[in-house]
Structures are given as C-alpha cells and as structure tokens.
Amino acid sequence: MANIGDAKFQGQDGGPRRRESSVRGGQISIPADPHFEGNAIEVRALRSSISDAGMLMHNLSLAPSMRDRRASRNSFGVSLPIPRSPRASRLSSDLAKEKVEAAKNMAFAFDIDGVLVHGSRLIPEAARVMELLNGDNELGIKIPYILLTNGGGKTESARVEELSRILGSPISTDQFIQSHTPMQALSEYYETVLVAGGDGYKIRQVAEDYGFKNVVLPKDILAWDPTISPWSKLSEEERKQAKIQDFDKMNFEAIMVFADSRDYATDMQIIMDLLLSENGRLKTKSKTPLENQLPIYFSQGDLLMPTEHGVPRLTQGLFRISIEAMYKSLTGGDLERVVYGKPELATYKFADEVMKQWMKEIHNEHVLPKNIYMVGDNPQSDIVGGNMYGWNTCLVRTGIFQGGENDEENPASFGVFANVLDAVQAAIKKELGKEFKFRWSDKINPVLHPEGAWGTKCPSLFHGESSAMAADPEPTRHIYLPPEILCTIFSYIEDQSQANATLRSCCLVCRQWCSVATPFLYREPSIKSGNFAAFAAAVISPINQPHSQRSDLGQYVRTLDLSELVHHSTNSMTAKLLRAVRQGLELFIAPGRSISSLNLLSISKCQNLQILDLSLVLTELSFGDVKNATKNLTSLTTLRLPKNTSLSLAANDVPWPPNLTVFQFGGDDPADIPRFAEEFSWPEKLTSLTLHNCKSLTIAAGQAIFGNPQLQQRLRRLRITSDNNFTHFRFMADLVNVIPKVKWLSLPGGDVNSTIIPTLATLNTQLELEVLRMEPSLVSWVFPLNEFKRALGSSLPRLRHLRVHVVHVPSVSYDSVVEEITLALRKNAEGAGYDKAMLGEVFSIYP
C-alpha cells in the first residue's frame, strides 16, 4: 500500500470467501433452526394481535412498509446480539439412568404474573411446583426450569430476591429472564440513551447495570425544563434525585422503554420530541424524520397484565400503540421499532441460551432439552410465542385466560389446566410415565439401593466406548509449524499481488492454517458491488444468532474501503458493517452518494479508527455532526470531509479529535471563511491541510485561512486542488511567505504555474520547502527554466522534488531540459544534506 491517502487497495474481485446468505432486497432472514427438528409440536400459523407480523417466526425487515413480504417491522437493520453470562457448574448426581435422562430431556419455562404469583401474592399451587422441580420427586433430581416474564422495571437480582421470598424457594438470576434482560446487549452499540418506564428512578440502575454509560430518564429532563411537559409536576424529593445535564447540547442515540410508564404525558411528549428531532437533540426538528428516525426499543408488547385487582390492567403494548399512532399522525409514516419480550423471536433465542447454561449448572451438560413446556396465562404472548418456537404450551386459568376449553385464536398445544401444578404434573407424566412419583422416598433412593439404578454397568464419564479407548492408533508423523511461524510466512504472502487467492487456499490446508490465515484474509478486503453482500453476510451476525455462534471475522478487518459502492441502499448495511468491524478498524472510506446519521453513530464507536475519508459523499452532512461523532476518537489522525460540508462556527465548542493531524475540506464554502476566520478553531495538532475542489477560493478567503496564526506555525503540508481553471490565484505565489514552515506544497494548474516559480526566484528568504507539485491544467504554459535555477540558489535551498504537468520548454531539445532540471535538483538536494542513495526521483511529469 504505497499511498494510503489514495485509499485504493488491491485484491481479488471475488473478495473474501462466500457464505450462504439470504440477504436481499433490504431484508435479513432468520434461517431455519435445528430447534424445530425432532419432537417439536406443529401448530397452525396464527396472527398475533400485538405484532404486525403475519407469523411470529418471521423475517426481520429493514423496510417496515413491505407488508407483502410477511415481515415484522422489528428492525433498523441492526444486529442485536444475545449475550451469554458465564456461570459456574457442578456435577449432577448418578441416579436411575433411563428416568434421569428423560428428566434431563425436559424443561419448563414459566410466566410469572398470573401463573406463579398475583402481584406480591402467591398462587398456592406454585409453591408445590417449586419443591417438585427442585428435587422433591421420585428421583430426587432437579428438573430444569426458567422464569420468562414480560414484567420488568427492577434489576434481576432485586426481582429474584422478591420472588424467592414469595415462592418460598430459591430462584437464581441465572434462570430468570425479564422483558428487558436481553436488551443488555444493546449497551455495546449505544452510550447516551433515554430510558422510560418503571417506578421513580429505579430503572436507571437497571440500565447502568447493563452497561449503558449515560442513562437519562424523562424525569431528569422534566427537572431540567418543566415546560417540556407542562401538565406534569415533580415533587421536591424527585427533583433532588434527578441528574440534570445540558440536554439541549446532547445527542441521544436511542430510546428504550424498559417497563410500564408511570407518567404517560411526560414520557410520550419527550419520546415524540426525540423521534421528530434532528440527530436525537432536544428542541430541534428534523426535516426528514422518516429517513433519520432515532432507534426506539420496547421491552415487551403485552396489552394486558393480571394484577391483584382481578380485572386485567393495561400495560406497555398499549403505550407502544399510542406512540405509533401519534408518530403516524405527525409524519404520515410507520414507526420503525424493535419489540422484545414474548412472543418476539429474540427473547426465545435468548431463553435457549439461558436454558443451556442452567442445564450446565445443575447437570453439567451444556445442551438444550428436547421437550420444553411453556406455562402461561396469556394466549396472545405466552402461547403464541411458545407455539411458534416449537415448545409445548400449557394455558392456565389463574391469570388473564378465563375462557372455555382452549383459546380459539391461539390454542395451547398441550392443553388447558386449572393451575400451574396440574400443568407440570401432566407434562411430567407424559415424559416420565404415569407411575412416576411426585414425592421423594428413601426406599427408591438409588444411592442406598444401587442395584435398582446403575447395577454393575456404569458408563464412562466421557460417554465413550471402552473398546474404542483401548485401541492405540497407528503412529503418524506430523510436521508442525507453530502459529508464529505461519504468521511470518503469511505476512509475506499478504504483500503479493495474488494475496487473497493464496490466503484462501491456505485456509483449506487444515484447521490451524485456516485460523492463522483468516485474519490476513480479512485485514484489507477488496469490496465491490459484486461481493458486497457476501462479505456483509460473512462479517455481520444475524439478530437471532446465539452468542456462541456469532461471527468474529469483523475483529480482523483493519481497512473498510467502500469507495466502489455508490447506491443509497448501502446506508443501513454500512452501519451494521461498521458495528461489526469496530474493534480493529483503522481506515474507513465511505461510499459515494450519501451517508446517514446512523453511520456516524457507528463511526463514533470505532475507537481504533485512524483515517476517516468521507470525501466521496455527495449529500450535505452537518459539520457539527461529524465533529460530535469523532471527538472521542483518540486514534484518529486523518479526517476528510464531504465536499458539501461547510465549516461553521456553530460547532466551534465541540472539540476536535485530540490527535488529528491531517484535515481535508472543500466545495463552495471557502468564500464564507473570511467572515469567521479569526474565531474559527483549527485542530491543535494539525500539520497537513487539503482544500479540495475549492471552486470559489478567493484571495480574501485564502488570506483568511493561511493568515491564521495556528496554521502559520504548525502547517507542514498543503494541497489545493480544483476541477476548473483559475484566474484568481495571484495570491498563490505569496503563499510561501504566509506559511514559511510548509515543506510539501501542491497547487492547482492554470495561472499558478506561470506565477509561482518567478515569484519564488525573487524572494530573499530561505524557505523550508522540500516538495513542490503543480497539478495538471488545461492551460498551456512554458516552464521558466532560468527563474527556477535562480530560485534554487536563493529561496529554495532544500527543494528535492518537483512535479509538473507536460509543458512547453524554452528549447528545441525537450530531453536535455528535463535532464538539466533533474541535475539541478539533485545538486540542490545533496547540498541540503539528503542521502544521495535514498533521494530517488527528483523530477517527474504527470502523465
């Protein structure tokens, strides 16, 4: 990579290896799941009353209006990982083999409200269920179960402590899922978030425990500006607990509704303000709210919930519907949102991971039981979700459902029961036999009576056949190359012209070679329109991918060059790619045509980014938004703005990236610079500046820029380009006087060519200029050979390289003049102390 500034990276057109992908037309499909194989119960596809999806086992659509694709509107095109928590394990007891295996091959998922408790009151049969599943049964074995609720608003530890007290049995946080538990994965993508719902300020602790760094509650904003919701009042105690900041200077990155709202007026007002805002800033209004809508997440979608009141109460689903209706009335478009909780797919994928971890905890087997029974009271969430996910569903009459034999629209696949105990006993009899005893008895204790259980045949702890273990394999000689040796070899391959093809071949040799070659293969991918979809599918993990199966290829990507892509539809995919590669990304070149605020949000997470090139973007991008996105990128050294991004004083208070040394801007805005040049703050460490395609760079603008004391002292490289012929560049000849410490200078063609060298020849000051380039021009000019020689002897004692366009020379022999210029430059450079052997080409001509 000879010139990183040009950002052209060579590679094979095929790009990285392809992986099967169903990405097309802006959709991300959920692949078939092995969970549905085997004993899954087939249930007729039904329409949920709380989801816009035709089926809940749906596609996650990027375009919510595409109803003909049977897609849920639950997506911004954002990969939502399902986190896994490390948990300790213990050995299970050696008990009766057949029944133990059957008991470990079944599990339960319980809803809480209306199944186990009513508010803070215990449903009597639930206590016996806990005893039975925790070991008070014929085998004395724990039958795995998890609690899966659409409730929330408290930390998992607080809710588990409360439930353990009510149920009279210990519940672990490792077997407990609230509606917002899977949302902790979002903390990897967002820092500044509005979190709504819950009692008082308790929800702040929940969000902070999940890893969100700047959590703002609606009450904080109301305390900051009471006029934002004029009909809501805070008590003095609430004001003291509020965390007030300059919210009108803050860019919110997402909205999250964790629990039921306690103040509909305030919560709805502030949420709508942000949904209609410009880049998530309060007291602003977006011109295109449908294109740049702030991401919003709801923890669940239930319409009703059972309480001690007796008649079910309204809950978060109605709050969401209200927000959607208001948004559509004000914008004319559908609200893009993500809903978690039952019956949404992401929650059940998360439940699978929790169930496997709990199996490892109690039985030391990290597997998913084949027969899972969902016990719930709400046909529209518990039963719909369980049916669609292939679980056996049990509907109880102790909560919302009070109907006949079964729910007509969403029937439970295993049956309807009076209470949770009846449901659990029926399931156990089906799996373990009708004669199974629901009480522990010492008489059938296989530890005291071993012949009834294991007898004399105890299988290996490794579940392997003894005969297979006894036979020694034939001796084989292996030539082993340590990974560090392979890394050295592959680093040389990386520099070759056919590097990608060779590295792909290396991946096929063996698993070890593949693991070493893969990082080299993905380090600098060559991305074109033909391989873009395949590359994205390989790097981006789908929303429903378990954490253990998520792709880690993104961590190897150092360069993401999308300069070959110019279509608008890459915006959402670009944001997802940036999130996937943010860990190691060092150089990013944005695609042409457009870039959205969603991309800037993703860019702000790339902490190792060194070069950010937005110069190909044709749409207008706010200078303040770019500075806000990059201000915390401590590794960023190079920033190139779009040509239509105008510098302004509005973002003067926003800090620059602390280590920015190379900056490029351009377009038509330089004409306005004289108005604010004295107040404009340049990056503190800036040493290289490019004015790109400045069509209206006037004498006044040039003097205002280069007369800035900051630039005069720090600037070492200056490049000015243009796509037309200049007639107002007489001041260019005086640039070297204004910025005397510049060592590398590149100027556009036109009149500059005929004025710069004669002006330099008349200067009495010795400059530090080492490289001078005059870029191609349509204007024909004669190279001033004599003036150039005089300049070398006076003002340019350190000049070592000159590059010009094809020009007329004052001689019949073109080659002899070129040779004369070359010899003069070499003599000049050697006199300045440059190593002759390292000097290289001193005079070159643009082709």
UniProtKB/TrEMBL annotation:
Residues 481-527 form the F-box domain. It holds the Pfam family F-box-like. One of its GO terms (cellular component) is mitochondrion. One of its GO terms (biological process) is glycerophospholipid biosynthetic process. Transmembrane segments: none annotated. SUPFAM superfamilies: F-box domain (SSF81383), HAD-like (SSF56784), L domain-like (SSF52058). Residues 1-34 are annotated as: Disordered. It comes from the Eukaryota. This is F-box domain-containing protein. The lineage of its organism: Eukaryota, Fungi, Dikarya, Ascomycota, Pezizomycotina.
